């Protein structure tokens, strides 16, 4: 098992740092470039959703990202925020036939990860993203 965790403020520019951590972490595990890119993209969308929908673009809120690698080749990403509770039943992708900008983040996350699940925490939200890689 291997674990790394970072905590950062809810500034959009910090998404690049989170993506970089994901990229470096997965490249050390011999994950192929396309899977790394896809994982970065989905994490980007998840963090952007926290910044926009949970924190309403407030730049001084805390986000904690934890990456956990377990055998055989499973990545778990935990995204923790301390904003208002999210109703998981309302977190759905928009229909793809609705042609308009935005709104595809949840679709992308669900397409890339095997599991997208909100865990029960007393304060804020904890999103688990889980994926098994073919290495």
Could you walk me through the main structural features you see in this protein, from its secondary elements to its overall organization?
By secondary structure, the chain is an alpha+beta fold. It has one domain: Heat Shock Protein 90 (2-Layer Sandwich), CATH 3.30.565. The protein is 33% helix and 28% strand. The chain has helices at residues 14-27, 33-54, 105-112; strands at 2-9, 62-70, 74-81, 115-119, 125-132. Strands 1-2-3-5-4 form a five-stranded antiparallel beta sheet. A hairpin with a 5-residue loop joins β4 and β5 (125-132). α1 packs antiparallel against α2 (33-54) and α2 packs antiparallel against α3 (105-112). The longest helix has 22 residues, at 33-54. The model has no long low-confidence stretch (mean pLDDT 92).
């Amino acid at each position: 098992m291997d674990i790394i965790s970072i905590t950062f403020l809810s500034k959009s520019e910090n998404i690049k740092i989170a993506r970089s951590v994901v990229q470096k972490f997965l490249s050390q595990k011999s994950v192929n470039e396309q899977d790394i890119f896809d994982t970065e993209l989905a994490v980007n969308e998840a963090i952007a959703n926290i910044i926009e929908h949970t924190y309403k673009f407030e730049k001084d809120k805390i986000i904690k990202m934890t990456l956990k690698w377990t055998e055989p080749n499973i990545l778990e990403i935990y995204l923790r925020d301390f904003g208002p509770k999210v109703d998981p039943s309302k977190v759905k992708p928009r229909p793809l036939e609705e042609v308009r900008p935005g709104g595809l983040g949840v679709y992308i996350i669900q397409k890339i990860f095997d599991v997208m699940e909100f865990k029960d925490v007393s304060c804020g939200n904890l999103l688990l993203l889980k994926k098994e890689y073919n290495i």
